[in-house]
Design a protein that fits this description.
Shape: globular
Strand order of the largest sheet: 1-2
Distance between the termini: 68 Å
Strand content: under 5%
Helix content: 55-70%
Structural class: mainly alpha
C-alpha cells in the first residue's frame, strides 16, 4: 500500500469513527433538529434546542481555533464562496425544513431511526438520495441551475460574516451561544453536556481530519494540492444529503473503478452502524413500518423535498446547520433560517390538521 493510499484510509476511518460516535450519541440522547423545533413550537420546551445551540457554539469556537492555529485553511472549505446564493438557500432551506417534518426527521435522524429498525426511514433515505442525486446531476439539477442558481450577489470579500472585519467573531458568537445555553441550570446534566459538546466536537474533529490530516500539498499524479477522500475536493465536515446520494451511487456501481469510497459515505455508514449498535445494546431495536398509504405518501413527499431542498440549499440541518454555520458562512445563515421557518410552517399545518380532525 502506498503512503497516499494509507493516508486516504486514515481519513475514511476517522470519518467512519466520527459517524459511529455520532450515531451512538444521537440515538442515546434523542438529538434531533426537527424534534428540537417541534418541542419549542408545541411545548415551549427549549431543552433539545439548547443541545443544538451548544453544538453550534462548540463547532464555531473549534473551527475558529483550527483556522487561527493554521491547521486548516478556511478559504478551502465546502462553504467558502464569494457568492451569496440567497435565493437557492432560501428556497432549498424552506423545502428541506418542510420536508423533514413530514418525513419524521432529517437525514441524520433517518439514519439513526433506520439503525433502530425503522423501515420507513429506509424508504426515506433511498428516495431522498435519489432526489438529491437528480438535483446534483439530473433533471432537477437542470431546473435548479436555470432558475434559483442564477440569482446571487457577488461579494468579493467573501460571503462570510468574517468579512465584517470583527476580530475573533467566531469566538465571540460561539462563546455567546455557550454562555446563553450553560446559564440554564437544567442544562447541566450528563446527557445534555454529552450531546452538546459531543456533536459539536465531532464536527470540529472532522474539519481537522479533512482539512489537515487529509491535506496533501502535492499529489504525486497531478502535482496539485488535494484534500483526500472528499467528494467536493474541498474541506468537508458532516452532511447527510449528498453523502446519502453518493452512498447509493457507490453501492449501485461498486464495480466501476471511478466510484470510490468517500468521507461522506464513511460517515453515513458510521451513523447507521453506531445507532444500530446502540439500539441493540439498549434493547430498543424494533421493526417499524408504514401505518397506511397516507403515511407512506407523506414520507415519500418529505423525502423528495429533503433531497431536492438539501442540494439546492447546499446542505441540511447538519451540513448548513452545524458544519456550514461553524464557518460563519452567510449562505449557511440564510439556509438555517429557512430550514427552521419551513419546519415551523409544516408543524403548524400538522397541528391545524389534527385539530380539524379532532373537531370533526
Amino acid at each position: 500500500m502506498t503512503e497516499l493510499a494509507a493516508l486516504t484510509q486514515e481519513v475514511l476511518g476517522a470519518f467512519f469513527l466520527g459517524g459511529l460516535l455520532l450515531g451512538v450519541i444521537t440515538h442515546r440522547t434523542h438529538f434531533c433538529t426537527m424534534g428540537a423545533i417541534s418541542d419549542v413550537v408545541h411545548l415551549d420546551d427549549w431543552t433539545r434546542a439548547r443541545h443544538w445551540l451548544c453544538a453550534i457554539g462548540v463547532a464555531m469556537v473549534g473551527f475558529a481555533a483550527l483556522s487561527d492555529l493554521g491547521l486548516i485553511d478556511p478559504r478551502k472549505t465546502l462553504y467558502a464562496s464569494t457568492r451569496l446564493m440567497w435565493l437557492s438557500t432560501l428556497v432549498g432551506g424552506l423545502m428541506f425544513g418542510y420536508g423533514m417534518v413530514i418525513a419524521s426527521g432529517c437525514g441524520n435522524k433517518a439514519l439513526v431511526r433506520m439503525g433502530g429498525g425503522n423501515l420507513k426511514s429506509l424508504v426515506v433515505l433511498v428516495v431522498m438520495g435519489i432526489s438529491a442525486f437528480a438535483t446534483m446531476r439530473g433533471i432537477t439539477a437542470v431546473l435548479r441551475v436555470s432558475t434559483v442558481d442564477t440569482v446571487f450577489v457577488d461579494m468579493h470579500a467573501g460571503a462570510n460574516l468574517n468579512a465584517m472585519g470583527i476580530p475573533g467573531l467566531g469566538y465571540l458568537l460561539g462563546f455567546a451561544l455557550l454562555v446563553w445555553v450553560l446559564r440554564h441550570k437544567d442544562f447541566w446534566t450528563f446527557d445534555s453536556l454529552l450531546v452538546g459538546a459531543g456533536v459539536g466536537g465531532i464536527v470540529v474533529a472532522m474539519w481537522w481530519v479533512s482539512g489537515h490530516l487529509g491535506f496533501v500539498v502535492e499529489h504525486p499524479d497531478t502535482l496539485d494540492a488535494v484534500y483526500l477522500a472528499t467528494n467536493s475536493g474541498r474541506i468537508e465536515a458532516l452532511n447527510f444529503v449528498a453523502p446519502v446520494a453518493y452512498t447509493l451511487d457507490w453501492l449501485m456501481f461498486y464495480s466501476d473503478t471511478s466510484k470510490v469510497l468517500s468521507a461522506g459515505i464513511a460517515a453515513v455508514a458510521g451513523v447507521l452502524l453506531g445507532s444500530a449498535a446502540s439500539a441493540l445494546q439498549s434493547q430498543t431495536f424494533r421493526w417499524e413500518g408504514f401505518a397506511n398509504p397516507r403515511d407512506l405518501g407523506q414520507h415519500l413527499l418529505g423525502a423528495v423535498l429533503m433531497g431536492v431542498g438539501g442540494v439546492t440549499a447546499m446542505g441540511c440541518t447538519f451540513g448548513q446547520g452545524l458544519s456550514g454555520i461553524s464557518t460563519l458562512s452567510l449562505n449557511s445563515v440564510l439556509a438555517l433560517a429557512a430550514i427552521v421557518l419551513g419546519a415551523v410552517v409544516s408543524l403548524r399545518q400538522q397541528a391545524a390538521r389534527l385539530e380539524r380532525t379532532a373537531c370533526a
